[in-house]
Amino acid sequence: MTPEHLPTEQYEAQLAEKVVRLQSMMAPFSDLVPEVFRSPVSHYRMRAEFRIWHDGDDLYHIIFDQQTKSRIRVDSFPAASEL
Q1: Residue pair 62/77 in contact by the 8 Å Cβ criterion
Q2: Residue 43: which of 9, 83, 11, 1 has the closest Cα?
Q3: What's the pTM?
Q4: What average pLDDT score do residues 8-33 get?
Q5: Calpha distance 83→65 (Å, rounded)
Q6: What molecular functions are annotated in GO for this chain (predicted)?
Q7: What confidence score (pLDDT) does residue 22 get?
Q8: From 53's CA, which of 46, 60, 62, 75 has a CA 20 to 30 Å away?
Q9: In sequence order, what are the residues at sequence separation of 6 or more whose Cβ sits closer than 8 angstroms to the Cβ of residue 61?
Q10: How far apart are CA 79 and CA 41, in angstroms?
């Protein structure tokens, strides 16, 4: 998954998975059902870390892959807030 290709069509499934994971983590302490507040499918991120990178005369933003630490070029970021 790259920042330009966020799996917005999987939002509901990902949210449901997070709720199940949270409930299982909290089960030893409480059997309450969490109240879920949905985010917009896009333009929800208020913070993100980017770097400016260049190859010769080409200048662009990058992020780093969390697993491999390899650079990922970012030309658009639909998760970013529109503010």
Answers
A1: no
A2: 83
A3: 0.55
A4: 90
A5: 26
A6: rRNA binding; tRNA (uracil(54)-C5)-methyltransferase activity, S-adenosyl methionine-dependent; tRNA binding
A7: 94
A8: 46
A9: 50, 51, 52, 53, 73, 74, 75
A10: 8
Q: How far is CA 42 from CA 3, 47, 52, 65, 77, in A?
A: 11, 14, 23, 20, 9
* Highest mean pLDDT out of 21-30, 45-54, 60-69: 21-30
Please give the average per-residue pLDDT across 73-83, as a whole number. 83
Q: What is the 3-state secondary structure (H, E, C) of the chain?
A: CCCCCCCHHHHHHHHHHHHHHHHHHHCCCCCCCCCCCCCCCCCCECCCCCEEEEECCEEEEEEECCCCCCEEEECCCCCECCC
Q: Which two tokens stand for residue 41?
A: 């499918």
